[in-house]
Amino acid sequence: MARSNAIVVPANPANIGEANQPQEMRIYQGIVLMARCKSNEKGLKNGVRYKVKEITEEDDDKHNFEMIAVTDENQETGESFIMTPDDLGSKMRLSYAITYFSSQARTINGPLRLAQTSCRNFTLRHLIVGLGRGPVSRDIQVD
Fold it and tell me: Is the dihedral of CA 27, 31, 34, 40 positive or negative?
């Protein structure tokens, strides 16, 4: 899904023992990411969506990312701030591929696809958690 001008940000796991480990991401201007951190860390709030507003190039091919919080309707809120690749790689996750585990207590407005429902490890609990994320049943697709 990444654009051709995307910048690769390597995963930077802060705690190896956690279940929700970061993964390498391809970041471009306009992509929306989700914060995965302690309740309120460095101005981030866990579970809040943030858009990459601008990418600036620093010395030695290092980039900084100007971030701003956005609503589910993609409306910008609050003040923008700068994140380094290390912070981005440890505290942010791709928002278009949320796991059942990490979606708990989150409302997802708009289209929602529950994937891998035929997997042998998929349980009734996963289905209940997934169905409970979407407030409008016509927006939910079960694969």
Answer: positive
Provide the number of structural domains found in the chain. 2
- The pLDDT tens digits along the chain (143 residues) read 677 788 888 887 666 666 667 788 899 999 999 888 776 666 788 878 899 999 988 766 788 999 999 987 889 998 999 998 888 888 888 887 777 777 777 788 788 889 889 999 999 999 999 899 888 888 899 98
36 & 73 share domain: yes
Instruction: Name the residue range of residue 108's domain.
Output: 101-142
User: Is 2 contained in some domain?
Assistant: no
Entry pTM: 0.75
